[in-house]
Amino acid sequence: MNIKQISFRDLNQVLAHQLGSVFQPTYSGEGSCHYRRNPLGDLMENLVPHPEFKMLGVRNIPQMSENSLPYSAFTWAGLLKHLRQMLISHAKMEEGIDWQVQPPLPGLPPLGKMSLTREQRFNTSLANLVILRGRDVQSANLEGFKDPALYTSWLGPAEAFSAWKTQRAFTGYERSAALVSNSQFFLKPLDRIVGKAWDMFASKAYIHQYTKFGIEEEDFLDSFTLLEQVVASYRNL
């Protein structure tokens, strides 16, 4: 975004853009003229098919400097191609997408039986929601997100994939797309955080500041157990 000195205000604007791309109104169904009345409930219904899997990640494209917008043009085919590759390769933004990562071919062994490197590179999904906003939204081809290879074996694309649409543009972008995914997006960062927290707990760092307010060491252990179960569940998708 060509920001030389990044402030908390800049960070908050990016966060607000990401959340706004999801929670701004969309139509409640194909061909409907009524907006959704309960987007958060609809989000949970579409993306959390199992109580053990509740972590959702957001990706949004395009997102750029306002000064660059007048010189940029986007097509649905281009946006959705990039968004799909961001999904399967763990990319957080358009820059730096790994185009070498591809879904496993039919007939190959499950990811759990493949090499650790291959397993970590491909992002398996439990459920995905694509939200499209802008011009000619009905012409967007979403077949790439309905590929069974993107999803865990116990939930097919018909149940795992959803799309919300509206022709109203979002913050000056003629066309924009957001992806909300219940997938392995956050697996590595969460695993890293839990590992660092274990190290701090083992060295008794800051523990006394919690225990004097009634939080016991058993509370920490219960939290570690809970988070390690979350990590294990997503790793085995």
Would you mind describing this structure in some detail?
Helices cover 37% and strands 13% of the residues. The chain has helices at residues 8-23, 39-47, 76-88, 116-121, 157-160, 187-202, 207-211, 217-235, and strands spanning 57-61, 125-134, 161-166, 175-183. Residues 111-119 have low confidence and may be disordered. It has 237 residues and is α+β, with helices and mostly antiparallel strands. The chain has a 4-stranded mixed beta sheet with strand order 1-4-2-3, with helices on both faces. β2, α5 (157-160) and β3 (161-166) form a beta-alpha-beta unit. The longest helix is centred in the last third of the chain and has 19 residues, at 217-235. The chain has 8 helices and 4 strands.
